[in-house]
Amino acid sequence: MTDQMRIAFQGMHGAYSDQAARRAFPGAVTVPCPTFEGAFGALRDGEVDLAVIPIDNTLAGRVADVHHLLPDSGVHIIGETFLRINHALLGVKGTQISDIREIRSHVHALGQCRKIRKELGVPAVVGSDTAGCAKEVADLGDKSIAAIAPVLAAEIYGLDVLRTDVEDAAHNTTRFIILSREAKTAPDNGSPVVTSFVFRVRNVAAALYKALGGFATNGINMTKLESYMVEGHFTATQFFAEVEAHPDQLGLRHALEELQFFSHEVLILGVYPAHPFRRDNVLPAE
């Protein structure tokens, strides 16, 4: 990758998505987008080369907006990366923790830092993203208002780090997918691979049970299965699934054939290398 590579992310500079993009593509230019739709659009329109988007978190679960956007986005998953989430309490220069009367952050970050909020006993204000709240605190210049955000945001916006690691759980980790306009299928060479796809089951009794049976009988490990309604219909349910196998492998090929028999609109979103974190549960040092 060169320094001309441009990577879109949702949020402002200093957000966790920005941090994940910088780690995955050192030297690349990260491009902030206010919304997930904006990041997808920047990629589709050729304004950026790739996008790094969060898809789920060990505490907060799935990022629902992304699951809804992916099927019709026209882009492809070509990789994944994981980021350990280390929340920090940030304030303007010279702030003491005793000065704080309000904490601002993204709703998920606030939910992941209940202990520090209880300790300080101050109200929380929900913002659009962690880095955006850090910038708000910097712009206001008010010692009574703090933000929960990455340390990177403190460096960018000139804030003091009042306390690090304020998250409640040490395992707090977010998984990000790497998106491209062009499909890039990982080779079937024996290395661990993830296949992501969406499908809709037919509206008949036991359709999901029958559709998924082929994965069990063919020994395919399904690591993710999320459901959500589409087009405002209670009977139209779409599923996002991920398996640890390659479509060229006989087992997954047979499982997908059986899936198509009991469902419709099966769409493979990406076939990409599995990140080592899946196996080792260890992330590289900063």
Automatic annotation (TrEMBL):
Keywords: Amino-acid biosynthesis, Aromatic amino acid biosynthesis, Lyase, Phenylalanine biosynthesis
Residue span, ACT domain: 196-271
One of the Pfam families matching this protein, by short name: PDT
Catalytic activity line of the entry: prephenate + H(+) = 3-phenylpyruvate + CO2 + H2O
Official protein name in the record: prephenate dehydratase
Matches recorded under CDD domains: ACT_CM-PDT (cd04905), PBP2_Ct-PDT_like (cd13631)
InterPro entries, per the entry: ACT-like_dom_sf, ACT_dom, Chor_mutase/pphenate_deHydtase, Preph_deHydtase, Preph_deHydtase_CS
Site label Essential for prephenate dehydratase activity, positions: 174
Domain Prephenate dehydratase: 6-181
GO MF annotations, alphabetized: prephenate dehydratase activity
A single GO cellular-component term on record: cytoplasm
EC code(s) of this entry: 4.2.1.51
Alphabetical GO biological process terms: L-phenylalanine biosynthetic process
Pathway assignment: Amino-acid biosynthesis; L-phenylalanine biosynthesis; phenylpyruvate from prephenate: step 1/1
Enzyme class: lyase
Species annotation: Thalassospira mesophila
